Every structure is written in C-alpha cells, then in structure tokens.
Amino acid sequence: MFLLDALAILLCLAAVFGVVNHHFVKLPFTIGLLLAGLLGSIGVLVLDHLVPSLDLARTVRGAVLQVDFAESVLSGMLSLLLFAGALHTDFGPLRQKLTPILALATIGTLLSTALLAVGSWLVFRASGVAIDFAWCCVFGALISPTDPIAVLGILKAAKAPPELAIKVAGESLFNDGVGVVLFTLALGFATAGQLDAATAGHLLLVEVFGGLLLGLLLGWVAERTMRSMDEPNLEILITVAVVFGIGFLASRLHVSAPLAAVVAGLWVGNRARATAMDERTEAALDTVWTFVDEALNAVLFLLIGIEVLAIDYSRSAYLWAAAALVPVALLVRFVSVWVPLRVVRRQNPVGRGALPVLTWGGLKGGISIALAMKTPEFPGRNAVLTVTYALVVFSIVVQGLTIGKVVRVAVGKPA
C-alpha cells in the first residue's frame, strides 16, 4: 500500500507543479519539475532550521528514504523509458551514424570512467575525504553515462539539427547499458578487492551481447505476433508485456536490461511499425507510449528534486569536492567525446558543432543517482552520494537550460 500511496502523491505533485510551471514559470517541463522538488526540499530544510521544534526535516527525510529510489529507477522506470525513447527513434538516420554512436557509447564511456576515477580520487584527497581508489572507479562508472531520459527530453526543446540530435540521442540510448555493466565490474572489484581479466571479459560479453540478443528476440516475437492481428489495444499490451518481460528475464539471465529495452524498442518502433501495424495501431501506440514517457519523466525528475533530503550535507568538504568536480567532469566529457570522434573521423566525419554540443549535452540524470544509492556502505559513501547528486542537478539545470544556446552557436543558427 505504501508504494501505491507514494505513487499517488508523486503523480498529484507532478500534475500540480506541471500546471504551475506551464502557466507561470515556463521552464522546460522536466527541468521545472526537478526545480520544484528541489525548492520544496530546500524549503523544508530552511523551515526546520528556523523552527527546530517541528523536527520537519527528519520526518520528511524518513518518508523519502522509504522510497527505494535505486530500485524504482533501475528495475522499474528505466526499461520503460528506454523502450519509449527507442520506439520513437528512426533507425534510418541512427544506422547512418551507428559507428560514431557506438564509439561514443563504448570507447567514450570506458575512457570517461577511467579519467573520472583518477580525477575524483585526486579531488577527494585534496578535499580531505579519504576514499579508496577502487570506490573512485565505481564513482567514475556511475557518473559517466549520459542519461537518455534527461537527454531525449531536453533535445526536443533545444531543437537541435536532426543529424546532430541523432548522435546525442543514440549515444545516450546505448551508453546507459555499457555504463551499468562497467558499474557492475567496478563494484565487484571494490567489494571483492580483485577482479581478473577473464571474469571481467566474460561478464562484459554476457551482459552486453546477452542484452542485445534478448531485446532482438523479444522485439521479433512481438512483431511476428502483431502481424497476425488488427487489435490496437492488444498490440499495445504486447509492447508493454515485452518491456516487463525484459525486466523479468534479464535479471534471471544476468544480461543487460537497458540494452535489451533499447533494441526491442528500435525493432518494434521501426520493423514492426512498417510490417505489422496499420495507421490506427500506430497512432494508438504513439499516444500511449508518449504518455508513459512523459508521466514517468515527470515522476522521475520530481523524485530527483525531492531526493536532496536523502543526501548528507553535514560536511562542507563534500560540497567543496562537488564544486571542484563539476569542471573536472566537463573536461573529462570533452576528452571522452573528442577521442572516439577522432578515431572514426575518416569513415564518419564530424559534423559542424558536434563536439561542443555532445560535450555540453552529455547530461547526467536519475540513473547516476540510482547507481550511487545502490552501492553498499563504505568509507566515503556519503561523499560520493553528495557529489553525484550535485553533478546531476548542475547537469540538468545549468546544462539543460543552456543547451539550446550552445546548439545555436555551434551550428551557426540565429538566436
């Protein structure tokens, strides 16, 4: 019952804040909800400081901590949102840019994880926070992926050119799965103290290729089943069943659910749309999955804002480390974009504005917070949680609100 109560409260708050933002604040929808949750949380902290007898912050923090944010995102929302994003992605342009997209999602994410591990270790040491290098590797892995949920929503508002938007969106769809696999490897290394190359390679192959094959198989089954009928509601139910089936099977087969959801979404959104759907089914499918996408986005970004109450800000060293890691993360993002694009430049020349837009548009989101919260207790865990939250909020609010200007400057469009 608590889960239903929490969902009811979040949906009501999202609707109310969404209406207020639409009529008065007029920020992009998801950013407006994040700021509403963040400002509401800060208001609770301020009121608690002014009237300590209310004990408001502790009470609200206790309620927030009852919501398992990591489980809600990783096992609940993520596959649904990735499937919805892939469902509305045209595979034709994606296929043309597949080489740079895969290079960014693999080489870029690996490079970013390594550089951020070193950078965060140095910053934490300079801030007086003692964290083992192994846990800095975990931090590098969880903060490296760009969040497709944040990126896809903000790209729509930024009106980026299609050729550029498909690179940003495509990278975000695929590097999520790669990032989760790297996080699993780094977490195994940090908790066990060692991880041999054979085990790591096996896990990487099983997680990545297993996820791709699972998504391909379930997408194909959905398409073949939908070919045999003309029932829009039943066909939509099949797509929902595919996503939940991915979550069920991936956890038991130990393969990547995010990658499976992306592949299945691409297959259904392109192949099945062309061979198994009439116009009526297409319209109904788009309507339902657009609503699912927008509603879950609203809840997720509101949750991110509210989660400030679950973060420990008792040590100023954590805040100094967060402030120092913002420019470090941006520099690492630049390098991890430049290197893969440099590698594939002969076969796929970099278009105008790609480097600055990919760098500034590499938004972090709920998946980074969820992965950070999934870590077990270790010396410095609160510092990692605080820094992760700060980087995500900076990314979504500052980079998200200015990406439109960066796009216009980078591609030479008038403001």
Descriptive keywords:
415 residues, globular, Na+/H+ antiporter like fold, mainly alpha
Topology of helices and strands:
Layout (H helix, E strand, L loop, with lengths): L1 H24 L3 H22 L5 H11 L2 H19 L3 H6 L1 H29 L6 H11 L4 H11 L3 H31 L4 H31 L4 H22 L3 H19 L3 H28 L9 H28 L10 H7 L5 H9 L6 H31 L4
Helix pairs in contact: 1-2, 1-13, 2-13, 4-11, 4-12, 4-13, 4-16, 6-7, 6-9, 6-14, 7-9, 8-9, 8-17, 9-10, 9-12, 10-11, 10-12, 11-12, 11-13, 14-15, 14-17, 15-17, 16-17
Q: Can you offer a commentary on this structure?
A:
- By secondary structure, the chain is mostly helical.
- The chain has one domain (2-411): Up-down Bundle (Na+/H+ antiporter like fold), CATH 1.20.1530.
- 82% of the residues lie in helices and 0% in strands.
- It is built from 17 helices and no strands.
- The protein has helices at residues 2-25, 29-50, 56-66, 69-87, 91-96, 98-126, 133-143, 148-158, 162-192, 197-227, 232-253, 257-275, 279-306, 316-343, 354-360, 366-374, 381-411.
- The longest helix has 31 residues, at 162-192.
- The chain is globular and about 65 Å long.
- 48% of the residues are buried.
- The mean pLDDT is 86.
